[in-house]
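Revision sheet: structure tokens.
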Amino acid sequence: MEAKTLREICAGTGVSRRTIQGYEKAGLVSASGKNKYGHLLYDQAAEERIRNIRFYQQIGFPVREISGIIDASIPVKRKALKNRIKALKREQDELKRLIEKALKLLDSLS
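Predicted:
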């Protein structure tokens, strides 16, 4: 598969140009080359890496933590993900509690 331009990567991953540039600045991803027009090109591995970085962000990892786990060993990744899942479950429980409280308040306003 041939390399894609930054614009194509953004369109394909749903990640903004600015976000990808931030990933580059943090050393998380880099272009694999440039085309004849000087546009940065990204290979399939870079595209998949961008998708993975974005996923880590979506589940709550800050970029500085992602840089420490994305290339880490499987045990390190597993531990980080297990801890993040625990935190997400706590957040989910708290949101459920808040929703229940908000619904009771709404009922009392009727």
